[in-house]
Design a protein that fits this description.
The protein is of the alpha/beta class and 394 residues long. The chain contains 14 helices and ten strands.
């Protein structure tokens, strides 16, 4: 009887011995490379050897260069505001991370740079109505000169961040005038951390290089790919989802979560001194580089008793519950920070544009505690341009 045992067909590996060899070799090399990396990482860390890719860097808090995207106010910001419209606000920047638009001349007659936080950036105002841009337009009309007026404001920045921007981005422009406005971000940072060099995960001045340190696997790969290749598509998709499905706009990460709920003790004299030293440093750096420094106090809706602003009071009561700092104490400190700006300006014979006194503490001009709406931005532009005109016209 004949043997009819079936002969199995050759496998892919048997049919492709060379490819199988190459594939096996690649797997082996990957395994060896991975093992060698882990072994060397263990050895180097035991020797306190830090590789270049693991070094710390100064945290340059800026608008990313060459961005063209939109920012939509989160739901909470809209709820806590008076009239803030939840729509896409365009955000653009040049190759150096300065906000657009501004008049770009090869040889401007005068160049101005505005430094500050979100109250300078004015993200939730249409880009052609943000006051740093409007100031340039008004000064051109009033003086007949070619004016470049640049907005380098960044939400969350305090005066230490602006000093970094001044040193590393503004000075190379050789501007004629640098205008800085800070208050609330400095005050909050100093209340929570008692220093500008605190542990805040996003605002601390020195950071580790790892951008995606806490992400692993496919999450890290997908996030890196999204942020590198499709940031505008991602932003547009979020906006479309909100419009079609009513999906909530993601709330911002709580940057002070590590300290909220703790009873804080504020050394008033110490934090005022810290703030004044940064203002003085700004003035000294500008004058050393032949830049005319200008300070501005910060507009606000902090009305003391007996006529408190209901929206402000509600927001401040939440802060008081978190920090143990009373509403009246915070408002008093905020007023003293604005007064410190006046004092330092006067002591150094520096122009101080007192927007805190000039802009009414009214929802007609501010949609929340310290942020201007369109009407407020237009008013600020008129006030600032009137006071800068003598510096620009000469």
């Amino acid at each position: 009887m004949a043997d009819h045992h079936k002969i199995s067909p050759p496998t892919w590996f048997e049919r492709n011995p060379k490819k199988t060899l190459v594939f096996g070799l690649l797997v082996f090399l990957l395994a060896v490379t991975y093992g060698a990396e882990k072994l060397l990482a263990h050895i180097n860390h035991n020797r306190n050897l830090v590789l270049f890719t693991e070094r710390r860097y100064i945290n340059l808090r800026e608008v990313p260069p060459l961005v063209d995207t939109v920012d939509v106010p989160p739901d909470r910001a809209v709820r806590d505001s008076d009239g803030l419209v939840q729509k896409p606000y365009r955000v653009r920047s040049d190759a150096n991370g300065f906000m657009l638009p501004y008049h770009h001349y090869d040889r401007p007659d005068r160049t101005l740079v505005f430094l500050g936080g979100s109250t300078v950036a004015c993200i939730y105002v249409d880009e052609d109505q943000r006051y740093p841009y409007l100031v340039g337009n008004l000064l051109e009309q009033q003086t007949g000169k070619k004016i470049t007026s640049i907005n380098s404001g960044v939400g969350g920045n305090n005066s230490l961040h602006s000093l970094d921007i001044l040193l590393n981005k503004v000075i190379p422009l050789r501007p004629d005038v640098a205008v800085m406005m800070h208050n609330i971000n400095d005050l909050v940072a100093l209340i929570y951390d008692q220093t500008y060099w605190g542990p805040n995960p996003t605002r601390k001045p020195i950071v580790n290089f790892y951008i995606y340190k806490n992400l692993t696997g496919l999450k890290a790969i997908s996030t890196l790919a999204r942020d590198t290749y499709i940031p505008n598509l991602h932003a547009a998709t979020r906006i479309l989802s909100h419009k079609i499905f009513g999906k909530k706009v993601k709330e911002q990460v709580d940057e002070f979560a590590y300290v909220r709920g703790k009873k804080l003790t504020v050394d008033e004299a110490a934090i005022l001194d810290e703030f004044k030293m940064n203002l003085q440093t700004f003035i000294n750096i500008c004058r050393a580089r032949r830049i005319t420094p200008v300070l501005m106090t910060q507009f606000n809706r902090y009305k003391p008793d007996p006529d408190p602003d209901p929206k402000v009071l509600k927001a401040m009561q939440g802060f008081a519950a978190d920090s143990g700092i009373s509403v009246s104490q915070f408002m008093d400190l905020y007023a003293k920070f604005n007064h410190a700006i006046r004092e330092v300006g006067q002591a150094n014979n520096v122009l101080v544009i007192d927007l805190a006194a000039l802009i009414p503490q009214d929802q007609k001009y501010l949609y929340d505690v310290v942020h201007l709406n369109t009407r407020g931005s237009q008013l600020a532009a008129r006030l600032i341009s009137e006071r800068l005109r003598p510096l620009v016209a000469r």
